[in-house]
Design goal:
The structure is a single chain. With 357 residues, the chain is α+β, with helices and mostly antiparallel strands. 45% of the residues lie in helices and 10% in strands. It is built from 17 helices and 7 strands. It has a 5-stranded antiparallel sheet with strand order 1-5-4-3-2. Helix 14 packs across helix 15.
Length: 357
């Protein structure tokens, strides 16, 4: 998606800083041991939150599957696991936290629980028979509300990359933060602050396998550090802007283009009608929303047209609808669909409408 404008020999020089020592397990005298707290219900049904349809589908790369139907991750200083009970309900377990009540509050915010999937799915399904059919099999595919700094760094790693390699890069960055504990063989760290990230050089990231993305990460960290009030506060302020204003602001950061900006806007900035357009979403759009564009080459202008088509179809929460449609196209999820699903029928219907127009 992005090109490296300057050759490696012209990399921008950064001040030489003494790196922090590698993270070590916390001292039991100064930090809590992993808590033997019990699993507690989160009062969310599987139709409101499906863990397998939410965590390993490209929104975040920091949560690990630590058991069947169980995922573990960190939210600030809180180390938490989520799992589905036998009845499908979601339960949570706090492994490490300075405050259990704060951990639960942060978790509910992260899961966007104020938004009812049942209501959204009902609205989308009433105007789209294909969505109604897919919703039967992909109920609970929820859009997360991530920390903007974490989300930004993760999607800088995602440029022209695959999930396995993205995850390794994100694990490297996460490992720079404070160690919080181990669950089922996985080590978990609090995501590092911008101040800690500023101590990492481009050369170090390149040696860790980041390639040209190293330049974008160090450049973005530098840009955020220069923001009045701090980069984390500046990113949070984008939640109050209109979508295009937020996209434009994000695109001033090194390595952030419209697609990455839309991902950050949707998954962390409350911009619920943001539509990240890549080749996969382009195929969905030309198959079901804009069949007259099938065979055309995706351009920035057509990216805007695709986004407009989704918003026209699904309204202010179009990004949530697009997320389900995207998940339904993933090879790992397609097997869920029966062979007689309405997909083909909808495709043919769209073509007939195009000919009649």
């Amino acid at each position: 998606m992005y090109s490296l404008n300057n050759p490696l020999s012209k990399m921008s020089k950064r001040p030489k800083l003494t790196p922090l020592p590698p993270s070590t397990p916390p001292n039991p005298q100064t930090l809590h041991r992993l808590k033997p707290t019990k699993w507690a219900p989160l009062n969310l049904s599987q139709s409101e939150l499906s863990l397998p349809l939410t965590f390993p589908t490209g929104q975040t790369f920091r949560w690990k599957q630590t058991a069947p139907l169980q995922y573990t991750g960190t939210l600030g200083p809180h180390l938490i696991s989520l799992k589905h009970h036998q009845d499908g309900g979601v339960y949570y377990h706090i492994h490490h936290s300075p405050s259990d009540s704060a951990a639960k509050s942060v978790l509910l915010d992260f899961l966007n629980v104020r938004i009812s999937l049942a209501e959204l799915w009902g609205t989308f399904s009433s105007s789209d028979s294909r969505f109604a059919e897919l919703a039967k099999y992909f109920a609970g595919a929820r859009v997360l509300r991530q920390d903007p700094v974490e989300c930004l760094v993760q999607f800088l790693c995602s440029s022209n990359n695959n999930i396995g390699r993205i995850t390794k890069m994100v694990d490297f960055v996460s490992g720079l933060g404070t160690y919080l504990g181990e669950v089922e063989g996985f080590e978990f760290h609090e995501f590092p602050s911008l101040e800690r990230l500023a101590m990492v050089t481009e050369v170090e990231l390149r040696k860790a396998g980041f390639g040209y993305r190293a330049k974008y990460i160090t450049g973005t960290v530098d840009a955020l550090q220069s923001k009045p009030g701090g980069g984390a506060e500046w990113l949070m302020s984008l939640r109050k802007l209109e979508l295009q204003e937020a996209i434009d602001a994000l695109c001033t950061l090194p390595g952030v283009g419209p697609k990455v900006a839309a991902c950050i806007a949707l998954f962390s900035l409350d911009q619920h009608h943001a539509i990240p357009v890549d080749t996969h979403v382009w195929k969905i759009a030309t198959r079901y929303l804009l069949p007259e564009l099938a065979g055309a080459r995706l351009t920035p202008k057509l990216c805007s047209r695709v986004a407009e088509a989704f918003v026209s179809k699904y309204g202010e929460y179009a990004g949530w609808a697009q997320t389900l449609l995207f998940i339904a196209e993933l090879p790992s999820q397609k097997a869920i669909l029966p062979s007689n699903s309405c997909t083909i029928k909808e495709k043919n219907s769209a073509k007939r409408k195009s000919r009649e127009a």
